[in-house]
Every structure is written in structure tokens, then in C-alpha cells.
Specification:
hydrolase (chains A, B); homodimer; alpha/beta; nine-stranded mixed β-sheet; AB_hydrolase_fold (chains A, B); hydrolase activity (chains A, B); FrsA_esterase (chains A, B); Rossmann fold; 9 strands
Chain lengths: ~240, ~240
């Protein structure tokens, strides 16, 4: 894990930009933090990156409000990572098929399942490296990710026993129902009622498929990109309850 | 409005038992309250009554936590009200039809629509009487009701302009989709994912039918009677946000 910069802000958040092998990431911790604390991994959306303003705001809230550590890696082909030629070719082929009238949801789901084969081991390695830091340590881990972050998050949470609670959403069951059934930790699942990208029945089917006895569905009117502004408070309380 | 008893408890809640015409009710207010405050009307479930332990706990939380007034009337045929022969006859006929294999949901919905023809004007009269009290006054009004309280609540909220926010749930669209479409105030809607009495599609259809631009669906695993214990906190915050 190589640190490239470390800056602290007056609201008490230290931000460290790092790379782990070929994975660029950002770690947020309380200024002057000492000892073990809960860690939340954020999975960004498609076409976004580790320092997307939404992600940064969410991370700062978890650090300042709860003293957590928060880490966000760039997904392959996103942010500071080079264009991935295989992914790019598949994405272009999918766009052509959608333009020719194909259903987008199964194509998106299959693509996300392909990317997850890389991100699941990458994110496990990120947890290893970050938890080896003295001011993070091996405390409980949470995962937050919607849209692409849900498609990649479901197989990650299913596979990684350190994750004790997860916030997922804006994703459907096409590719991930089997992995979802293996998730047993508490899950908060967010659905946009008028999502133009994920069919409602697909989202409801993914919530249904989750194996967790403690799961809750939160649905609001609006399209894929219109999650309500109150959501960060609600997810912060959820993580505080299960990791704090 | 005739008051039959008034008791105050050490946690700061005054409980007044009253009758308004033939309607028995209970009003909870902060001890020593002076002046106008938000008022929440609670609609109890089928076979329950105005002093059901769940209702009492919910009312006390709104009084002690937020300084609200809370009122709960007995629905006809429930609590201290006499058996209603017409309702009783219909309920017995429905039970026989369900035992013979009929779908319960449409029968229950039709029955609730019949009862609502009485409860809508009764509850409006209760608001008039309670808001005439100096320590309640004409502040914003909220409504809370699930199950029977949802079946009766949808037409009430649709009809009563004083209601500015409503919590509904455990009910389906069979009889009330048309009234639901006329509701435009913020709504929090609760659904039990494994509800054995209300088919899931019916519940989702009722949420879908609500005309409110600001509405949220909260779904949890479990049967009709197993709403999560965290729900009262969430609804208290909702009322505080919209009435406080």
C-alpha cells in the first residue's frame, strides 16, 4: 500500500490517497485517530469514481458522525485506472444491442458479474491492507454500494465474512440472485420506484432473494439517479447500529 | 365532548378518556400543556381498540418526545362500543365464504370501505372537538393507521384537508386505490414482506396508487403482526419532520 498524499481538513477528517498494486483508493479517517474502529467500504456507481462528490459526502459523514474509517477503491476502467479494453469492447457491444432493441437489464447484469470477478478479490485485498493500519485495525466492516456498487457488492458481501452489514440498491436480480441468497448479514436495500434502468420487479426480486433475516426495503418515487437526500442519515444510523 | 377521567403519569403524559356522541376516545397530551400543538389521530387495527398497548406506547412516545397531542377513537363494533349487528352479520358471512375457499383480500377491503363510511365523518368530528380544546388548538394534523387503520385511514386522509402527513400500511389496493390517488400529503407506507393477510402485489399496488409526490415504502420480512420494533422511532421522526 503506497500513500501518495495525506490531507486533513478543519472538520476533523484525514484523507489519504493510496494505491494497492494497480488499485487506486482513498481512505478517510478521523484526524489523530488511534486504535481499532469500524471500516466501511464504498463501491461507486458506473461511470463514477472513488472521489465522486456523493461518495465523499457520505464518507465524511461516517467519519465525523461516528468515528468510522471509510475506504473507496476505483473499479477497473473507472477513475484513475486505465481503460480496460475487454470491458470497453463489451460495453460498446451492449450499447449496440440495446440500440437495436435488446433488454438492457440482463446485459448490464452479465457485465457487472464479469467485473465482480476482479473486484471481489481486489476489495478483499483492500480490506487486508487498510485493516493492517494501526488507526483502522480489524474492527467490524460494512459495505455500501448502489447501481454498479450493488452489482459488484452482492458477490462481495456474499463472499467476505468480515462484512457485518450492507447497504445495497438500484440493482436487480438478473445476475446476482444466487449470491444474494448467500448473504445473511443485515441489509438495507434502496429502490427507486420509477427506476428507468432497473425494472421494478427485478429490484423486488433481488430484495426477495437476499438470505438475510434482518433486511429492509426502502422505496421512493423517482428515477435511477434521484435517491432522496435523507438517505445518508438513514444509512449512517444503520451502520452505527450494526458496526458501532 | 364529555370527559370521563383524566390521569397524569410521572413521565409527563395526561390521558383523558372521553365520549363524543357515541364515540369513545382517548386523548394524550403533555402534562400542563398550554397552547396549540400538532395532533396525531391513531386508527387501531381490527379486533383491537383505542387503548391497545401498541397504540398507547406509540402515543406516549409522540407526547413525551415531541410535545404532540394524540387522539385514538374506538372504531364501531370495537373497544367500548356495542356490537354492530350489521357489521357482525357481514363479518360472519365473510368468514363462511373464506372457509369455503373465497379470496379474503377483496372481502376484507369491501368491509373496510363500508365501515369507513361511518368512521370518516366520526374522525372529522373528533378532530373538530379535540382541536377546540385550548391545549390542542388548530395545529397541523397527522394520521397513523395500519391494517384496519389503513383501510379506514386512506379514505379519511383523502377526505380531510387538515391531515398534513400520514403513516399507513399492512393494507392493499382492493377497495382504496381510488381514494389513495387523491392523497397528496407525505406518506410513510409500511409493508410486511410475508404478510399472510394482504397479498404483496396488493400492498405494492396501494403504495403505487398513492398520489403523494413525497412517499416512501418500508418493507421488512415477517407476517402481518410482526412489524419491526424500530418502526415507532422512524414514524416519530417522520411526524416531527412534517408536523413539528
Amino acid at each position: 500500500m503506497r500513500t501518495h498524499s495525506e490531507t486533513s481538513s478543519s472538520d476533523g477528517v484525514t484523507e489519504r490517497l493510496f494505491t494497492l498494486g494497480e488499485i487506486p483508493g482513498v481512505l478517510w479517517t478521523p484526524v489523530g485517530a488511534v486504535g481499532t474502529r469500524p471500516l466501511v467500504l464504498l463501491g461507486h456507481g458506473g461511470g463514477r469514481h472513488k472521489k465522486d462528490p456523493d461518495l465523499v459526502a457520505r464518507a465524511r459523514r461516517l467519519v465525523t458522525g461516528h468515528g468510522f474509517a471509510v475506504v473507496a477503491p476505483d473499479v477497473p476502467g473507472h477513475g484513475e485506472r486505465p481503460v480496460d479494453e475487454e470491458y470497453d469492447r463489451i460495453a460498446r457491444a451492449n450499447q449496440a444491442r440495446i440500440a437495436a432493441g435488446a433488454e438492457p437489464a440482463p446485459l448490464i447484469a452479465a457485465f457487472q458479474a464479469l467485473v465482480a470477478r476482479r473486484t471481489v478479490p481486489e476489495w478483499r485485498a483492500v480490506l487486508d491492507a487498510v485493516q493492517a493500519l494501526g488507526h483502522v485495525g480489524t474492527g467490524p466492516v460494512g459495505y455500501w454500494g448502489v447501481s454498479l456498487g450493488c452489482g459488484l457488492g452482492v458477490p462481495f458481501v456474499a463472499r467476505e465474512p468480515r462484512v457485518r452489514a450492507a447497504v445495497l440498491g438500484l440493482g436487480g436480480a438478473s445476475a446476482s440472485a444466487e449470491a444474494a441468497a448467500r448473504i445473511t448479514v443485515p441489509v438495507q436495500f434502496w429502490l427507486q420506484w420509477d427506476d428507468e434502468r432497473v425494472p421494478r420487479e427485478q429490484s423486488l426480486a433481488l430484495f426477495d432473494a437476499l438470505g438475510s433475516p434482518d433486511k429492509s426495503l426502502h422505496a421512493h418515487p423517482g428515477g435511477h439517479g434521484e435517491m432522496p437526500v435523507r438517505e445518508p442519515d438513514c444509512t449512517a444510523r444503520f451502520f452505527a447500529r450494526h458496526l458501532g
